[in-house]
TrEMBL record, chain A:
<feature type="transmembrane region" description="Helical">
    <location>
        <begin position="129"/>
        <end position="148"/>
    </location>
</feature>
<dbReference type="InterPro" id="IPR005672">
    <property type="entry name" value="Phosphate_PstA"/>
</dbReference>
<dbReference type="GO" id="GO:0005315">
    <property type="term" value="F:phosphate transmembrane transporter activity"/>
</dbReference>
<dbReference type="GO" id="GO:0035435">
    <property type="term" value="P:phosphate ion transmembrane transport"/>
</dbReference>
<keyword id="KW-0812">Transmembrane</keyword>
<comment type="similarity">
    <text>Belongs to the binding-protein-dependent transport system permease family. CysTW subfamily.</text>
</comment>
<dbReference type="InterPro" id="IPR000515">
    <property type="entry name" value="MetI-like"/>
</dbReference>
<dbReference type="GO" id="GO:0005886">
    <property type="term" value="C:plasma membrane"/>
</dbReference>
<feature type="transmembrane region" description="Helical">
    <location>
        <begin position="66"/>
        <end position="88"/>
    </location>
</feature>
From TrEMBL, chain B:
<keyword id="KW-0812">Transmembrane</keyword>
<protein>
    <recommendedName>
        <fullName>Phosphate transport system permease protein</fullName>
    </recommendedName>
</protein>
<keyword id="KW-1003">Cell membrane</keyword>
<feature type="transmembrane region" description="Helical">
    <location>
        <begin position="20"/>
        <end position="44"/>
    </location>
</feature>
<feature type="transmembrane region" description="Helical">
    <location>
        <begin position="209"/>
        <end position="230"/>
    </location>
</feature>
<dbReference type="InterPro" id="IPR000515">
    <property type="entry name" value="MetI-like"/>
</dbReference>
<keyword id="KW-0813">Transport</keyword>
<dbReference type="GO" id="GO:0005886">
    <property type="term" value="C:plasma membrane"/>
</dbReference>
<keyword id="KW-0592">Phosphate transport</keyword>
Length: 295, 307
């Protein structure tokens, strides 16, 4: 065989393998949406789940997932922002900084089960917070911090050096330059990073099983006092999220319509992730167009 | 006069603000460092209790096959042989990485060498979606499609290493692909130009030049994929069958470190031996993830590309 034929053959093989992967993705998403969407109805999305009967919904789990997402972002974003600013704008080149960078890398590669178990040990048991939304949010913060910090740092790094010099030349202090000049310009990148991390948080379950718990107590959606145990806003109640719910009904399997409920819940999860992904892309493009005046 | 003197000898408001800002930012960074140290410390102290408090020998823990921590054998020493889980974890990790690598290489080559513009535009979202699908959804699909298919094709229950491998294959594929794309893009353009100018075909250029120049990047990408596979808990737990037995073949029920942790932790009492043994498994997971990290660093140092 001559070189040209081998070249054609290799290209064909590569094309074939790529086709297989695309097919897998299409089949995967198609399967989940086709089997799941028929179960998704207003009733399914709003009614509480059932343990032994048919016809349970995912209302509480959906609310728990969203509430946990908001709490996690509230805790992790300020820390990630501070750490990102320090690492990119202030950190001197010395062993302390490089140790911290290694630590962040280690944290980002830790399995989420280990992070969840650490949260379980420290918050659920030592600090006696019990299985609660707060413990879950803190565990998810640990899980989310390294990636978010790195994205903040990258967004800061993408701001041209000239902007920094201009700020300093106007007599601003470094902090004022960061807050007044650099941060607004890095904001689109940071927002995209937050939305993408929201997708990850929304689907995470392994870190939550032993921190936010696997039970969903009945919620009273007319009670908005955060201190009352039946209030949806109470951060100290155990809360099973959507992802944990899918895992639990599949591994315990006492629910008669478990596969229907998990198909529906999977479809909702996938849709949420798709929405997060596309909105991050859309927002990124839109803001990019605005600040660069390109079409 | 007093005013001017004060302005000259005292820090201005902006300087003070800068100091506070820097302190706050440093505190946030410090917090992350502290967090990592405390995770390492707490998991290590719990995990080592099996060996120091309950006097299980490390060698027995790593090589014995009998996992039943609440029981003791006839000599009175507890049955904590973690070998089945260790074998399970390593086999799903290695098999899925081996299976995913050719596909990842093909994807990455397609995006960088064959159709750089259209390929990237089309495949980038594919990779992002595969990363974005939550692991429980992979587990659920594995349970409803992969397990029955394996059962009808190969017999047995369908639960086992093979199903775990197939599910993990899809999960590590995007990780390996996206990292390898980055390292292919880092191969300098003149490498390709030089090869093509010598009359090589595109495949000859890819195979003889680009692939070889990017081998460190490929290894790093595979290790990252393996780290993800090794630490993945729920998707694997749902399809592997959860039997703490040494797997005889690819289709007999098995278990991994993560699957035993997720199912067992809730059923044991803090501070007892069965619980400590689980923390030792968590410690192995932690040490392995540190190992993967070290290997990546080592490859990164060795394989810097000449520009």
């Amino acid at each position: 065989m001559n070189a040209k034929k081998i070249d054609k053959l290799a290209t064909a093989i590569i094309g074939f393998l790529v086709g297989v992967v695309v097919l897998i993705l299409v089949a995967l998403i198609g399967y989940i949406l086709v089997t799941g969407l028929p179960h998704v109805s207003w009733h399914f999305l709003t009614s509480p789940s059932q343990s032994f009967l048919k016809g349970g919904g995912i209302g509480d789990q959906l609310f728990n997932s969203l509430y946990l997402l908001v709490l996690t972002l509230l805790i992790s974003f300020p820390i990630a922002l501070g750490a990102g600013i320090y690492l990119f704008e202030y950190a001197p080149q010395n062993w302390v900084t490089s140790t911290i960078r290694v630590a962040i890398e280690v944290l980002s590669s830790l399995p989420s089960v280990v992070v969840g178990l650490f949260g379980f040990l420290l918050f659920v048991i030592e600090f006696k917070l019990g299985f609660s939304i707060l413990s879950g949010a803190i565990a998810l913060t640990f899980f989310n911090l390294p990636l978010l910090t790195r994205s903040v740092e990258n967004s800061l790094a993408s701001v041209p050096k000239l902007q920094r010099e201009a700020g300093l030349a106007l007599g601003f202090s470094r902090w004022q330059t960061v807050l007044g000049v650099i941060f607004p310009e890095a904001l689109p990148g940071i927002l995209t990073a937050i939305i993408l991390s929201a997708g990850r948080i929304f689907g995470e379950a392994a870190a939550l099983i032993y921190t936010a718990g696997q039970s969903a107590p009945i919620l009273n959606f007319s009670n908005w006092n955060p201190l009352s145990p039946t209030s949806p806003l109470n951060p100290m109640r155990p809360a099973e999220t959507l992802a944990v719910h899918i895992w639990k009904i599949n591994s315990e399997g006492i629910m008669p319509d478990a596969s229907a409920v998990s198909a529906g819940a999977s479809a909702v999860l996938i849709l949420a992730v798709l929405i997060f992904n596309f909105s991050a892309r859309w927002l990124g493009n839109r803001i990019y167009r605005k600040v660069t005046a390109s079409k | 006069m007093e005013d001017i003197k004060r302005q000259l000898t005292h820090s201005s408001k902006a300087t003070k603000q800068d100091r506070y800002g820097k302190a706050i930012a440093f505190f946030c960074t410090f917090l992350i460092g502290l967090l990592v140290v405390s995770i390492l410390y707490l998991v290590a102290s719990r995990g080592l209790a099996t060996f120091f408090k309950d006097h299980v020998s490390v060698w027995d823990f790593l090589t014995k096959q009998n996992w039943n921590p609440s029981q003791v054998d006839k000599n009175g020493s507890p049955l904590v042989g973690a070998l089945p889980m260790i074998v399970g974890s390593f086999s799903v990790t290695i098999f899925s990485a081996v299976l995913a690598t050719p596909f990842a290489i093909a994807m990455a080559l397609f995006m960088t060498e064959i159709e750089p513009r259209r390929g990237t535009k089309f495949l980038q979202p594919v990779i992002e979606l595969l990363v974005g699908i939550p692991s429980v959804v992979y587990g659920f699909v594995g349970l409803t499609i992969v397990v029955p298919v394996v059962r009808t094709v190969f017999g047995g229950t369908g639960f086992g290493i093979l199903s775990g491998t197939l599910v993990l294959f899809v999960m590590v594929l995007p990780t390996i692909t996206s990292m390898y794309v980055d390292s292919l893009r880092a191969v300098p353009r003149f490498y390709r130009e030089a090869s093509l100018a010598l009359g090589a075909t595109r495949w000859q250029t890819i195979y003889k030049v680009v692939l070889r120049a990017s081998i460190p990047g490929l290894l790093t990408a595979i290790i990252f994929g393996m780290a993800r596979a090794f630490g993945e808990a729920l998707a694997v737990q749902m399809v592997i069958g959860n039997a703490s037995l040494l797997p005889h073949n690819l289709i007999s029920p098995a278990s991994t470190l993560t699957s035993v942790l997720t199912t067992g932790m809730g059923n044991t009492v803090m501070g007892t031996l069965p619980n400590n043994a689980l923390w030792s498994l968590a410690l192995i997971l932690l040490l392995m993830s540190l190992c993967f990290n070290l290997i990546v660093r080592y490859i990164g140092k060795k394989g810097r590309m000449a520009k």
